[in-house]
Structures are given as C-alpha cells and as structure tokens.
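Lecture 7 notes: from sequence to structure.

We start with a single chain of 251 residues. Read the sequence below before looking at the structure.
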Amino acid sequence: MMIILALIRIGKGHVDGRPPAAALSGTPNLFGVCVYSFMCQHSLPSLITPISDKRRVGTLVVVDYVLILCFYALLAFTAIFCFDNSLLHAMYTLNFTDNCDVLDVPALRYFLGLFPVFTISTNFPIIAVTLRNNWKTLFHRDGGTYPWVVDRVVFPLITLVPPVLVAFGTHNLESLVGITGAYAGTGIQYIIPALLVLLSRRQLQPVLGRGAVNKHRSPFRHACWVWFVVVWAAFCLVFVTANIILADTKK
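Now the structure, written as tokens:
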C-alpha cells in the first residue's frame, strides 16, 4: 500500500525528495541498518521445512532473497523521491499520517500509523516468552528448580523491563535501529552462526570422516567465508561505534 501510494504521488508530479547522489556521513549507520535488515533470514525455516524434495532449495532461497531485495529497494526509492528528505520520518509509516496530499482517507491513515503497533503486538509476546525461556535455560542447573518468585517474577521482569525503559528513554528510531542492529544483530546473525559452523565441523569431522560429501553443501562452504563473516561483523561494530561517538561529539 505504501509503495503504491508513493508511486501515485510521484506520478502526479509531486516529487519533493531531492536526495544527494551519495552521503558518506551516513555510512557508519548504514552498517547497523544492513545488519538489522538481514532479519529477513528469519523467513527461511518456514520456507524450507515444508519442502520434501530439497534438491532445488538453493534456487528457492535465491528467489526469496531477490524478492526481499526488490521490495526493500522499491520501498526505499519511492520514499526518498516522494517525500522531502529533511522532513522524512524514520518510522516510514508516519509520513502517511501527517500528509493529506498522499492519503486523504482518515481510516487508512490511522491504519498505516498504527501498523507498527500491530506488528509489534503480535511479535513481542512470542519473542518475550522465548527470551524468558532462554533465561531459564541459561541459569538452569541439573536437578534444580527455581523458586516461585524467581520463576514467575524475576525472569519476566528482566525480560520486559529493558525494552520498556528503552521505549520511554528514546524516540530516535534511526539510532535505536543502528545500535540494536550493530551490537545485538551482529552477535546473533553473524558471530554466533559462524562459530557454530566452525565448532560443528570440528565435531563432525571425526565422526563422518574427511571423505563425507553433503549433497546440500553451499558454494560458500570453505572456511575462508566463515572467517570473512567474522571480519565483516567486526567492521560493522567498529563503524557503528565510531558513528555513535562522532554523533555525540557533534552534539
């Protein structure tokens, strides 16, 4: 809907955006946003699991990522040309709520404005329960049980309080996405999977032997690619940290 509305406005000649060809000052924050956008990989298990014949699963994954890239690019380019870049909200849906030239139907304007609330309301309980269970597993000891207060009060509180404090403490969505994407996202999506690959290969090699061939092996199976991911994660952390320090220094 947002892409269509932006294209209609651009087609009518209302092109308020005048983006520069390049803005190198935004490069550090770009790394955090790119890591955050990589969350599209969460759709892979739901795509791969139901497939019984996985001989063409690589093609399916490529098609999936190409479609995601096309939608990201189309959404981004329509946004930067449709709206004045100096007035563009970091939460993109808000641009449709305060501009009647784009959308003059009040019900749809409220829907787009509240759309992030709908998505968070459906995802946050699932993520919170998963995090609470992870806390329990992290501190679990064999043969031990948690007291009622710890199980029902402490674990839910350490799960819910941090995001609530962040929500009350900041409204700068761009910085928030950059920080969470760079630090938490880098660890979850780059470092941990890379280390899992390295350690699992070491454990499986004595069991399967060097001559074992995986018919679903990736073209990026060489260990150099795994270390490349680790180096890339380090660069992301360095750039975003430098961006945060420089931004605070300018203030």
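The mean pLDDT is 79. Keep this in mind for problem set 3.
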